[in-house]
Design goal:
Helices cover about 35% and strands about 25% of the residues. The chain is built from 14 helices and 23 strands. By secondary structure, the protein is of the alpha/beta class. It has helices at about 20-35, 50-60, 75-85, 120-130, 150-155, 175-185, 220-225, 255-270, 285-290, 300-310, 335-350, 355, 375-385, 425-445, and strands spanning about 10-15, 40-45, 65-70, 90-95, 100-110, 145, 165-170, 190-195, 230-235, 240-245, 250, 275, 295-300, 315-320, 325, 330-335, 365, 370, 390-395, 400, 405-410, 420-425, 450. The strands form four sheets. Strands 17, 18, 19, 20, 21, 22 and 23 form a seven-stranded antiparallel β-sheet that branches. A six-stranded mixed β-sheet has the order 1-5-4-2-3-6, with helices on both faces. A five-stranded mixed β-sheet has the order 8-7-9-10-11, sandwiched between helices.
Length: about 450
Amino acid sequence: MGTIFRAYDIRGAYPAELDEDTARRIGACFVRLLQTETIVIGRDMRLSSPSLAEAFIEGALSAGASVTDIGMVSTPLLYYALIDGEFDGGAMVTASHLPGEMNGFKLCRKNAIPLSGDTGLPALEHLVSDSPTIPPQPVRGPYRRLAAMDRYIRMLFSFVRPERPLNIVVDAGSGMAGPEVARIAEKISQWTFSLMDMEPDGRFPDHIANPLIPSTTRNLQARVVGEQADIGVAFDGDADRCGFIDEEGNRVPEDLVTALIAEVFLQCHPGGTILYDLRSSRIVPETIRRLGGKAVRCRVGHAFIKPQMRKEEALFAGELSGHYYYRDTGYTDNAVMTMIQMLNLLSMKQEPFSRLVAPLKKYASTGEINLQVKDRDAVLAALEERYRDAGIDHLDGLTVEYPSWWFNIRPSHTEAVLRLNLEAQDEEAMEQRKRGLLSIVSKAAPDMRIKE
């Protein structure tokens, strides 16, 4: 049981780790834990999602909740419905960007505040482990189906600002972004959309829906160049993450997307607060400040970003994982909104996408390196001792800062690895610093292995 309760959600292989019996118990215990009276549930296109959703509903009804089922939707649409309908809680059946044999639940309190490893999931796991089997039963009682797409699309469309024509290629990855993007595309005459893998299909026939994996965007990159498009957009399975391709077919780093979209918000809200993931390039806070905004570092993960956004009343937040968060969507992450804001920026400018990105590539970065070691604490202690003359903080793992370079190394919340990000003034300095740092790690942990 413990293997499926993760730092931010519940995930496991179906049916070996997560089956209908477990889903029923999760539904019942979720209602009991939060003492919820009304919940809304949605599901993605995975082949196991309908039966897991039905089982969750059975469990929730058995615990006395009233359930609204919005059917097959994206995770951001579930968040919107939860906030818009003022439900006490929400559940999304999805495994996000993972392969089709995986599935899981993203669970929220009122106002789409997530349950996580720090806020509710351990207590839920304990309840589920101790709960008896709940027999399957017909779905009856305080249950209704609700179509939520139309209101959601109207909300998204209200943010569209097409100032000049654009040619856009979109790869929905056979995930839940497809129906939403198609609805928006048909409403905008100034922008021309070329659409790929738009039909939701839990078998993922063309590629896994994870835009962070370079191999998944190769066809999209080729289409952008071949069709002389202005931009390419790739989505993950449940449409809460996305990635971008410039007109030359190059992938755009996710942290630089944060800097680009910050400009859209700061033009409308001068002096506003933007949060950025502490793994981001230094160019991100530099750009936010140059545009007159307040740049605030944040921990990795939506469970930390969302409450900090509320505390800071931030307009927008960006994460290296391709999650982008908006005050306008109730401080939740929304990939289709991110596409809209990036298209607004590109439409507003009279320059190619690559030219907007170029000034942001000021520094050289390793990207995220995953280090498998047995003794993570020994590694962190050795690095802190070696670089004790630097600026050091422990906001999330260990961050070491010098005037000309910096790194962050942090234990993953989802895997047994240390995640390293290092940035320097240029490629040569970056490679030199990386070699030195990895040498220290290998001495502290002779079993070190770089995970591809």
